[in-house]
Amino acid sequence: MNKNQPAAPKLNIRQQVYKHLRSRMRSGDISYDDRLVDHEIAAELQVSRMPVREALLQLTNEGLLEGTSRGFMLRRFTPADIAQIFEIRMLLEPEAAAAACLQANLEGLALMNKAANASEKAHAAADPMQYMIANDAFRESWISLCPNPHLSTMIFRLSDHVEAVRLATLRDTRYRELSMQATRGILQSFLDKDPEQAREHVRTNLRHASMSYYATLDEMLERQAG
């Protein structure tokens, strides 16, 4: 780490609980059937109830949870919701990638390369869960290089909204290969500091993600009908 770079501020308890819950949501550890109750989470994490409730309310305000009479649950997004989220991401992420690739430093590129290698390893092992974790790390590494922190935060929140469907799509070997190709392309465009290629690879990745989501949804509906 650069000695002149200020250390990251220490997270307070609410922020730590928020980060913990968001990580569990992104990994698929929290399902649509789970109820998140503040006093149960507080006991599990050995913290007071108030910061847990504040973290749950923050996730609700961000559109990730819904309040019920017996705690909080993951928000269920309709296909129309998902389509609108992909539409917004298509507007934001390519431009963020173009800006980020021009700002990429050696430390950021090293993180991207490490995550890309982990993605390759998980893909070769046909491990969709580990691939999703590595792919999340890759996305986080390049989005964090975006010089506009408000844009980065918005992109992270939008992608979290569709995180629950990502594992299902990444079980598809064909889509995982397309995702891996996009990862290689994005990394190379950052190494080359080529904003046009960065835009195009991110656009292509989003198109493939959208198509894979709807293909997976159709398969699920067919199984339910059968």
TrEMBL record:
Superkingdom of this protein's organism: Bacteria
Organism field: Alcaligenes faecalis
PANTHER family (alphabetical): GNTR FAMILY REGULATORY PROTEIN (PTHR43537:SF45), TRANSCRIPTIONAL REGULATOR, GNTR FAMILY (PTHR43537)
A family per Pfam: FCD
UniProt KW DNA-binding keyword: yes
Signal peptide: none
Domain HTH gntR-type residue range list: 11-77
Gene3D superfamilies linked to this entry: GntR ligand-binding domain-like, Winged helix-like DNA-binding domain superfamily/Winged helix DNA-binding domain
Any one GO molecular-function label of the UniProt entry: DNA-binding transcription factor activity
SUPFAM superfamilies for the chain: GntR ligand-binding domain-like (SSF48008), Winged helix' DNA-binding domain (SSF46785)
Official protein name in the record: GntR family transcriptional regulator
Keywords noted in UniProt: DNA-binding, Transcription, Transcription regulation
InterPro entries: GntR_C, TF_FadR/GntR_C, Tscrpt_reg_HTH_GntR, WH-like_DNA-bd_sf, WH_DNA-bd_sf
